[in-house]
Amino acid sequence: TGIVIVSYLGFDAISTLSEEANDPTKSIGKAIVLSIILIGSLFVIVTFFAGFVAPNYSELNPDTAFLTILGKVGGSWLVHLAEFTLVLSFGLAGGQEGQTAVSRILYSMGRDGILTKRLSYLHPRYNTPWVAIILVGIVSVALSLSLSLTTVSNLISFGALFGFLSLNIAVIWHFYIKRPDKNIESFVKYLVSPFIGFSVSLWIFLSLALEAKLTGLFWLIIGLVILVYKTSIFKKPVPQFDFSE
Questions:
Q1: How far apart are alpha carbons 90 and 111 in whole angstroms?
Q2: Among 22, 50, 71, 100, which is least packed by CB within 10 angstroms?
Q3: Phi, psi (5° rounding) for residue 127?
Q4: Which residues lie below 8 Å from residue 96, measured CB to CB, with a gap of 6+?
């Protein structure tokens, strides 16, 4: 389940490009929903046809099951083509997507004063956060060479699921509890729907490996320490970006 979550994580990276999109109040939301529909449909269709080729899929090696199915369909050349495509998609496309998303988050935190201002430096020619991009690239290479796929997927899943839990709670609080004009539509959209999302995310979150939970908890503690320091033990307001500028 942790690896499946990592496979679907690309859609949330779209939100980090809000400041670089045309009309982000409309385009970002549509892009996120459309990407989920396209990715989900592709997964269902591919799995559907793969089931015809290997109905006894439980007998296959889960680490190489899909490549085995491709071998039955098109032979070794199709397997090699798929391997080459996987390397490109994960190594280049997936890596670039993650680097782009994380660097924009670090850029925002540097600009807002939560982290060092150096992370908010923009390249004079390309107007991109080059310091944050290089830092993310260095850290990513170091982690990819020192951690296993299972460990990385569990750690990423912790962050993703914790974010999903927080997001669903925020929707309930902001759009339902704080709004006086409650009706059937708002009850379904802003209470029932996010509650279902919260419940499913919590169920998967609790099933993560203990290693992921402990490491994620340690990471949260580091963030809390930074927040306490920046707010002088919550005596100052939390740094925020002024959208009125």
A1: 30
A2: 22
A3: 60, 35
A4: none
Distance, in Å, from the CA atom of 240 to the CA atom of 66, rounded to the nearest integer, reads 46
2 near 160, Cβ under 8 Å?
Answer: no
Distances (CA, A) of 161 to 82, 164, 238: 30, 5, 24
Question: For residue 188, what are its two tokens?
Answer: 């379904």
What global pTM score does this model have?
0.71
Number of H helices, E strands in the chain: 11, 0
List the structure tokens of 129: 């956060």
Per residue in 41-55, pLDDT (tens digit) is 988 998 899 889 888
What digits encode the pLDDT tens for the residues 65-116? 888 999 989 888 999 998 898 888 877 777 788 888 889 989 988 888 888 8
For residue 225 the two structure tokens come to: 């320490």
Question: Around Cβ 81, how many Cβ atoms within 10 Å?
Answer: 12
